[in-house]
Design brief:
This protein is of the alpha/beta class. The chain has 8 helices and 7 strands, in the order E-H-E-H-E-H-E-H-E-H-E-H-H-H-E. The chain has one domain: 3-Layer(aba) Sandwich (Rossmann fold). Strand 4, helix 4 and strand 5 form a beta-alpha-beta unit. It starts with a strand and ends in a 14-residue tail after the last strand. The relative contact order is 0.14. Bound molecules: NADPH dihydro-nicotinamide-adenine-dinucleotide phosphate (NDP) and 2-hydroxyethylsulfonic acid. The site of NADPH dihydro-nicotinamide-adenine-dinucleotide phosphate has 30 residues, from helix 1, helix 4 and helix 6.
C-alpha cells in the first residue's frame, strides 16, 4: 500500500531532498514549512510522482501545529512516516556574546517544534500500532564544538528526546530513529549567518561537504528496512570531517 510521509522543513536542504526522493519512490507527501510560495512550487513539481499536500505553519506555534494536523484531508489523514527535520542554527558566537533571540529561536524550533509536531502525529500511530519517526539530529548533538553552545544544546536535546521516544514507544509498533548528519551544504549556514551568503559560502570551501541528497538517501534506506529492523541512531560525516567541530573555523 502507498505510504504517506509528513516532512517538516521541506522547503529546502535535507527536507526538500528527502521529499523529492520519497516522491520518486511513490510515497505520498505532506510537506511543511513557513514559505508558502516554495511549498506551492515544490508541490507542483512533485505532483507528477505522487499525491502532495502542503501545510504552512511555524513549528513554534503549537496551536497552529495542532490545528493543521487535526484537519488533514481524508487521503492524507494516515501518516505512516514522520520526518522531524525543521530546524536551523542561529548565530555562531561564544556563549558570552550570544543573542537571547537566537537562543530562543534554536530551542523553540529545534526542540519544542519537534515535540509539538510529534505530539500531534503520535496518537494515530499509537492507535494503528505502526509508524516510523525519524528525528534529524546532528553531530552537534553528539559533541559540542566551539561557539556552537546553544545549537549543540538543542541537538543534544533532540538526541535525548529520540532516545526517550524510542523507550516510551517500545512495544507499540513504532520505529524511532535519529539520523545525525555532519556538515551538509544547504541553506543552513545562510540562516546561521543571517543572510550573509559570502560568510555562509566559506563554511563549505576547500573540502567536499555532504549534500542534502546524501542524507535523503540514508533516510530512504532507514524507512525501507524490513519491518523488524530499526536504524536507531546513525551518524554520518563527509570524508574531511572527523568530529563535530566545523571543518572551516569561520
Ligand atoms: P535548511 O535551512 O536548508 O532547511 C531548514 C528547513 O527548516 C527549511 O525548510 C525551513 O523552512 C524549516 N524551518 C526552519 N525554521 C522553521 C520554523 N520555525 N517552522 C517551520 N519550519 C522551519 O537547512 P538543513 O536542510 O541543513 O536543515 C534541516 C535539518 O538538518 C535541521 O534540523 C538542521 O539542524 C539539521 N542539520 C543540518 C546540518 C547541516 O550541516 N546543514 C547538519 C546536521 C543537522 P521555512 O524557512 O520555509 O520555514
Ligand atoms: C550541524 C551542522 O555546521 O553546525 O548540525 O556542524 S554544523
Amino acid at each position: 500500500m502507498t505510504k504517506t510521509a509528513l516532512i517538516t522543513g521541506a522547503t529546502s536542504g535535507i527536507g526538500l531532498a528527502t521529499a523529492t526522493l520519497f516522491a520518486e519512490n511513490n510515497i505520498n507527501l505532506i510537506l511543511c514549512g513557513r514559505r508558502t510560495e516554495r511549498l506551492t512550487a515544490i508541490q507542483k513539481d512533485l505532483l507528477k510522482y505522487c499525491k502532495v499536500h502542503i501545510l504552512t505553519f511555524d513549528v513554534r506555534d503549537k496551536n497552529a501545529v495542532k490545528e493543521q494536523l487535526a484537519h488533514l484531508p481524508n487521503e492524507f489523514s494516515q501518516i505512516d512516516i514522520l520526518i522531524n527535520n525543521a530546524g536551523n542554527a542561529h548565530g555562531l558566537e561564544p556563549i558570552q556574546d550570544g543573542s537571547t533571540d537566537d537562543w530562543d529561536a534554536m530551542l523553540d524550533i529545534n526542540v519544542k517544534g519537534l515535540l509539538y509536531v510529534t505530539k500531534a502525529v503520535l496518537p494515530q500511530m499509537i492507535s494503528r500500532n505502526s509508524g516510523h519517526i525519524i528525528n534529524i539530529g546532528s553531530t552537534a548533538g553528539k559533541e559540542v564544538y566551539p561557539n556552537g553552545n546553544v545549537y549543540c544544546a538543542s541537538k543534544h536535546a533532540v538526541d535525548a528526546i529520540n532516545q526517550g521516544m524510542r523507550l516510551d514507544l517500545n512495544g507499540k509498533g513504532i520505529k524511532v530513529a535519529a539520523i545525525n548528519p555532519g556538515m551538509v551544504e544547504t541553506e543552513f549556514s545562510e540562516v546561521r549567518f543571517k543572510g550573509d551568503t559570502e560568510k555562509a559560502g566559506k563554511v563549505y570551501q576547500n573540502f567536499t561537504p555532504l549534500q542534502p541528497e546524501d542524507i535523503a538517501d540514508i533516510i530512504y534506506f532507514a524507512i525501507t528496512r524490513p519491518p523488524h529492523v530499526n536504524i536507531a541512531d546513525l551518524t554520518v560525516m563527509c570524508l574531511d570531517q572527523a568530529s563535530s567541530t566545523i571543518v572551516n573555523k569561520i
